[in-house]
Amino acid sequence: MQIQNAPYFSVGLTGGIGCGKSTVADMFAARGASIVDTDQIAHGLTAPDGAAMPALVAAFGADFADARGALDRKKMRELVFSDAAAKAQLEAILHPRIRQATLTAAAEATGSYVIFAVPLLVESGGWVERVNRVLVIDCLESLQIQRVMARNGLSEEQVKAIMATQATRAMRLAAADDVIDNNGDLASLEPQIAQLHDLYLAFSKRMAGIGSQRL
Questions:
Q1: What gap in Å lies between CA 189 and CA 178, rounded to an integer?
Q2: Three-state SS for 215?
């Protein structure tokens, strides 16, 4: 997937669970950016009648679909956490479909620039090279845990288990071109997003004149 050769400026937005990626993406969208959310694409592929469901049922069995015909996410999550081969099989089914849907959505985008919201951008390999800038939403790990416990009703141990499957905070920051500090409230996000939006608009205009490259 060679996004960098595309005729638009692109940002890869990422962060650990509970860092506030969706909130930040919505705030950029309100300023005119096009958001391509790989999580939303994956959910669509695994919804009732989703394009990936026949292959998933064939690979894992009908009991991995719920009564509506959607993927039983809880059951699949439990399986892939404990079985590396099953995780690889799931990714082999979903990732090519997600890539294609991502490219299609980006090609159809009409915003001033494109933000790819990719929770596992650092972990998945290749995304850093595919986008023009990497934007990391950062917060304290203790705050991540508090937010996810409150939002999802998970125990501290469950949240920590999820975090253990993700890149560390240091790894994400090492991959970042830009960082948004989300240790505060919404008001603290506004000036950071406004500043980056202006920067990305400038990069987008510059790219229109010189072609795609790392900026």
A1: 14
A2: coil
The C-alpha atoms of residue 158 and residue 148 are separated, in whole angstroms, by 10
- What is the per-residue pLDDT across 88-137, written as a single tens digit (0 to 9) for each? 999 999 989 998 999 899 999 999 999 999 998 998 777 888 899 999 99
213, pLDDT greater than 70: no
Query: Could you count the other beta carbons within 10 Å of the beta carbon of residue 44?
Result: 15
**Which residues have a Cβ under 8 Å from the Cβ of 90 and sit 6 or more positions away?**
56, 59, 60, 76, 80
**Which DSSP symbol is given to 19?**
S
Q: Which of 25, 19, 14 is nearest to 159 (CA)?
A: 19
Contacts of 40 (CB under 8 A, 6+ apart): none
Q: Which of 177-181, 199-203, 207-211 has the lowest mean pLDDT?
A: 207-211
